[in-house]
Amino acid sequence: MADVYYSGIVSAGFVRRCNRFVVECDLQGKRIQAHLPNPGRMWELLFPGRLLYLTPSAGAEKKTQYKVVGVERNGTPILLDTQLSNLVAAQLIRQNRIPAFSGWDVMKREVTFGDSRFDLLLGRGEERFIVEIKSCTLFGRTLAMFPDAPTERGRKHLRELAELTKAGYRTGVLFLVQWRHAQYFLPDYHTDLAFSRTLYELRRKIEVVPVAVEWLPGLILGKENRVLPVPWEIIGREAQDGGCYIFVLRLPVDSSLPVGTKGIMHFPRGYYLYVGSAKQNLTARLERHRRKRKKFHWHIDYLRQICEPHAAIPIRTTAPLEHEIAAAVSKIADWRIPGFGASDCDCNTHLFGMREDPVHSPAFIELLQYFRMDRLDDLRDKI
Questions:
Q1: Amino acid 1: pLDDT
Q2: Which of 92, 274, 279, 292 registers the highest number of CB atoms within 10 A of its CB?
Q3: 74, 97, 113 — which closes off a domain?
Q4: Which of 331, 317, 312, 311 is closest to 375 using CA atoms?
Q5: Is residue 177, in this structure, part of any structural domain at all?
Q6: Total-model pTM
Q7: Judging by DSSP bridges, how do beta strands 105-113 and 220-227 pair with one another?
Q8: Helical segments of the chain, H only
């Protein structure tokens, strides 16, 4: 029999995210706010009109009438309630549905070692196994990745788990992938290079166990779950501080300004997407683009004086993708600024404009998904 965790689920349409933990949604024609117990970015999931699963709030969540517990993507429910992940993980372990933890008993949830708290303590005779649970909601065509936002806390947990092995404990990280269609897993080195490198470095000390689970309509836990392979070779090769990027800026009003030797250029109000590359020190390049005060060198330095940074999106890769990315952005852009940022290549431009926020555009998120995730399917097949 399937495992049921929620009762009284109602459906609503996503409207917008008010802050990290509150969303506005359409419930039977009425706009309401609901608590979102998940701080992840979830750009790939939260589009206007997407079907959300809500349950009545309780306890500290009473500031809003409802809590968001899931979302539907391509007809498949996905759990968003991070507060439930530990309970689900403990249930899977008790049912011996995860081979890495087969034969272990769940002794305690939320156990403290030093100044950190971990999610599960397992026991088998005199042996002890400390397990941290991470809920993964970032998926491409076949790849699942974690995290979808930088997590210094997550990296700290990895270091501390490695230290605990010196005291005789077994330790591990269980990535609970909330999507049964995932075929393999990688740390998201585009979003959090430090976390990904740390996981790669400690992979022989800490057991890394990604498990894809099945959610049925009504957010019922199905019987299908499987351990996903981790192609560490991709991380060893691709998780470097170099590659390409899309720097997104917002211009509130129509403006004109001089741009180096290009002279006066006109920029309609809206969002601007600048495509660039840095073979090394990609993080520093994006930090430089964010700053206003600097010696002008690139065309983007001039535009930054009248725009506010909106999103800095690295695409870490050893492949020369800059011009391919520019061509892809050009296809979804509302306008282009000819000759901008393309002095040293054959591209018409590397600066593109959009009327609406690209982060909320399915076409733009699909583009990011390809260059950050789906193209890795070919690399995996060659390994």
A1: 43
A2: 274
A3: 74
A4: 317
A5: yes
A6: 0.93
A7: unpaired
A8: 82-94, 152-164, 193-201, 232-238, 282-290, 299-303, 322-332, 362-369, 376-382
Residue 60 — pLDDT band, cuts 50, 70, 90?
low
| CA distances for 3 relative to 55, 71, 80, 120, 220, angstroms | 17, 18, 17, 20, 6
Domain count, the chain: 3
Lowest mean pLDDT among 59-63, 133-137, 207-211: 59-63
pLDDT score recorded for residue 61: 56
Amino acid at 163: E
Q: Does the pLDDT at position 137 exceed 50?
A: yes
Between the alpha carbon of residue 38 and those of residues 22, 148, 181, 254, 339, the distances in Å are 10, 11, 21, 37, 42
Q: Are 342 and 300 in contact (CB under 8 A)?
A: no
* Shared-domain flag, residues 34 and 138: no
Short-list 253, 226, 273, CA closest to 371? 273
Last residue of a domain, one of 51, 74, 97: 74
Identity of the amino acid at 355? R
Is 277 in contact with 244 (CB distance < 8 Å)?
yes
Say if residue 87 is in the same domain as residue 227.
yes
The Cα–Cα gap between 174 and 103 comes to 16
382 in a domain, yes or no? no
Q: What is the pLDDT of residues 275-306, one digit of tens each?
A: 999 999 999 999 999 998 888 889 999 999 99
Strand ordering across the sheet containing 270-278: 308-316, 243-251, 270-278, 351-354, 335-336
Tens of pLDDT along 317-368? 999 999 999 999 999 999 999 999 877 777 889 999 999 999 999 999 999 9
- What are the residues facing 336 on neighbouring strands? 352
Total residue length of the chain? 383
Whether 125 and 225 map to the same domain: the answer is yes
Domain match, 337 and 248 both: yes
Identify which of 163, 108, 157 has the alpha carbon closest to the alpha carbon of residue 134.
Answer: 157
